[in-house]
Amino acid sequence: MELTVIGAGPAYTDRPGAVGAAYLVRSGPTALLLDLGHGAFANLAGAIEPSRLAAVLVSHLHPDHFVDLVPLRHYLRYEFDPPRRVRVAGPAMLAARLDALLAEPGFTAAALDVEQVRPGPVRFGSLAVEARAVRHTDESYAFRVTPADGRGPGLVYSGDCGAADDLAPLIRAGDVLLSEVSFGLGPNPAGAAHLDADDVGSLARTTGAGRVLLTHLLAGRDREATVARVRTLAGVPTTLVEPGDRLLVATLAP
Q: Which residue of 7, 123, 137, 253 is 20 to 30 Å from 155, comparing CA positions?
């Protein structure tokens, strides 16, 4: 199972070239995308022909996690004759939100087959996904992705999450944790519903995660100190991912 980081940016950043959240997971013939935030479509198209995606899973309805479904929809609708389609699973109001953005009822359904995320295990080709609701927006999810045959470690993606304990039931010993760390060394502002380095490091230690991949770090936060703090608390290798990173999940685990 391979992870390609398409985009790893937060809602805003001062780093040139940074784009919204998007993480491509592949196993055999199956390619699954976790989120598709602002500016990420071009990177996606450079990594895979987008109509080959088995599905896009959307963690929640903040634009830095879903808004590039708009260029994906346009690509599928206008690049091919007849148009192609991609399956999308996300919060209940995803299609309505996209239609409202364009003020066009049926805009989404022209090329995207949208369904609501179902908690529990779902199979997409050679990959299996377990979704779990987390505290962030009214409807937000984290995902655990594994090869469908059950071999090897899982990849647990936090989405945006305001309570590290919500992620713990998804993480098995040896899993790779791909976690937001929006507020770096912290502290988190009251009501922010995000994680900082102490949250992520403690979570990784108590759940036995085998490796931590950090993402979604806000502008102005100390990158090196954030990674070092999580690594110290977790006691496992820890890195901050960048667009273009390609990682074999099995080799990241103990």
A: 137
The verdict on whether omega for the bond into residue 71 sits within 30 degrees of 0, i.e. cis, is: no
Q: Report pLDDT digits (tens) over 166-216.
A: 999 999 999 999 999 999 998 888 888 999 999 999 999 999 999 999 999
Reported as a single tens digit per residue, the pLDDT across 25-46 is 999 999 999 999 999 999 999 9
Q: What are phi and psi of 22, to 5 degrees?
A: -170, 125
pTM of the model: 0.96
Helix, strand, coil fractions of the chain, as percent rounded to 5: 25, 30, 45
Question: Rounded to an integer, what distance in angstroms lies between the CA atom of residue 130 and that of residue 118?
Answer: 9
Select from 173, 121, 160 the least CA-distant residue to 144.
121
Scanning 63-216, the segments in alpha helix (DSSP H) are: 63-66, 69-78, 94-102, 197-207
Q: Which tokens in the block code for residue 169?
A: 């039931």
Taking a C-beta distance cutoff of 8 angstroms, is the pair 21, 64 a contact?
A: yes
